[in-house]
Specification:
about 450 residues, alpha+beta, four-stranded antiparallel β-sheet, about 55% helix
């Protein structure tokens, strides 16, 4: 077995998409919270809003000072929680203000510059709402741009107010989080949906196969575990089809063999019946003829036994069709073919046909199954007996060559032969039997003359 991958392709894709979604979400959050929201809040578009807010805060502080009856000193020292309710950060200055400039650095160290021509001293203090815990944001200092006067019980103080913008910044942060979540979903959700669709498509493909349509090809796009699973299912489908095709071919071949054997059994059975009739009713002339018919009957009985054994073996689908067949053997071709032709021609002559077997001029060897050759001759001469015209001679010609021996039979067919018992199996069966032995069979019908040509390949030891 091959070494397993540490990470699957599908898992790596999911991790990559998730990382990309997180990176996009972080970038969107940063842009919204740290760039877009501050730029929008402190832009000129919102300046009128902050001015109204400042005026409201100053008025609220004036009402507070008036309600409490605070003096200038008390207003500068006041740390009441009322400032939280007002909601601002105040820089309070006292004294007359002929010319004053207030500034602050990033560490919130405030400086007050005045016109030194006036001998006036100023006091500076600041107060913050409780939720700021004494820390003033740098953005808040930017609002220290305008001074407002507040009337106290014993004088006037000047204040600059910075409204609490934390709430608005929080809204920007929430918007940034929502947009970041949307950005993450925009990247990750389509990939998940696409993956689920591919799984669903594969499920539908396998459902078609489970319904019995094995001709339906399974196609799943991609190069990950899902597509690999689809390819495995497709290979399994093709394997099942190949196996089914092989089984159908085996069953078909077995059925054809059984049918052909059943057809071939009739020929030796008919001859056996004829020989037994001759012996039963003493239609022979001499003792030698009696013994000859008895021998022929015995041979046909043995041939019937071989055919029936082969038929029974072929009837078993799980058993090989050639289980009881004899293997090919090397035989004396001149003796085998001469004997078969002599027997078959004698039978035809007794049936009233004019036929003479040829004589082989030389000896030759054949490598074949003897039982197949016997079946071929039985079928061939059985057809002659059924369909040939007895009034015309049956010609048997022999052609001998170094590598092959050819037998040609010619006969004139009956004008209207009776084909009621014909199943059309004779010629295909004979052709298949000849091909199994390396030979061929060719038949033709022209102008009422039927020609059968058998070619046997000779065998050299």
């Amino acid at each position: 077995m091959g070494k397993k991958r540490r990470f699957s392709r599908l898992g790596m894709k999911l991790v990559g998409v998730s990382v990309l979604g997180l990176a996009l979400a972080f970038a969107v959050f940063y842009l919204v919270d740290s760039v877009a929201a501050p730029w929008l809040l402190y832009s000129d578009r919102f300046a009128p809003f902050w001015q109204r807010r400042n005026a409201d805060l100053v008025q609220a502080y004036q009402d507070y000072v008036t309600e409490k009856g605070l003096t200038v000193q008390q207003a500068m020292e006041d740390k009441d929680s009322r400032l939280s309710a007002i909601g601002g950060v105040y820089i309070v200055l006292t004294g007359t203000m002929p010319s004053v400039e207030v500034s602050a650095d990033e560490d919130f160290h405030f400086q007050v510059k005045t016109d030194t021509s006036n001998d006036v001293s100023y006091g500076v203090t600041w107060a913050a709402p409780a939720e700021t815990t004494g820390t003033v944001s740098f953005g808040s200092v930017e609002f220290v741009t305008e001074l407002y006067h507040v009337q106290c019980a014993d004088g006037t103080i000047y204040v600059s107010t910075s409204p609490a913008s934390q709430g608005y910044e929080g809204l920007g942060r929430i918007a940034g989080l929502l947009l970041a979540l949307v950005s993450f979903c925009v990247v990750v959700v389509p990939y998940i949906v696409r993956t689920l669709r591919r799984i669903g498509a594969l499920s539908r493909e396998t459902g078609v196969l489970m319904a019995g349509d094995l001709e339906h090809a399974v196609h799943v796009a991609g190069r990950d575990e899902i597509s690999g699973l689809g390819e495995d299912i497709e290979r399994l489908r093709r394997s099942v089809l190949e196996r089914l095709a092989g089984e159908r071919e085996a069953v078909g071949a077995n059925s054809r063999l059984i049918t052909s054997l059943s057809h071939d059994i009739r020929t030796p059975l008919t001859k056996l019946t004829g020989y037994l009739d001759i012996l039963t009713y003493a239609k022979y002339q001499t003792r030698a003829e009696h013994d000859e018919y008895l021998r022929l009957a015995s041979e046909k009985a043995a041939q019937l036994k071989a055919l029936t054994d082969q038929l029974f073996a072929s009837a078993q689908v799980d058993a090989p069709s050639s289980g009881l067949e004899q293997p090919p053997e090397t035989v004396d071709g001149a003796a085998l073919l001469g004997q078969l032709l002599s027997e078959q021609c004698d039978d035809l002559r007794r049936a009233g046909f004019d036929i003479r077997p040829p004589v082989f001029a030389r000896a030759f060897m054949l490598h074949l199954r003897t039982e197949d050759t016997v079946r071929v001759f039985d079928n061939l001469f059985s057809n002659l007996r059924k369909y040939a015209d007895p009034s015309s001679p049956v010609l048997v010609r022999l052609s001998e060559a170094p590598e092959a021996v050819t037998l040609t039979l010619e006969n004139r067919v009956l004008p209207a032969p009776d084909r009621a018992d014909s199943h059309g199996l004779g010629v295909p069966t004979m052709r298949e039997l000849m091909e199994r032995s390396g030979g061929t069979l060719e038949v033709s019908l022209k102008d009422g003359v039927y020609r059968s040509t058998l070619l046997f390949q000779t065998y050299k030891l």
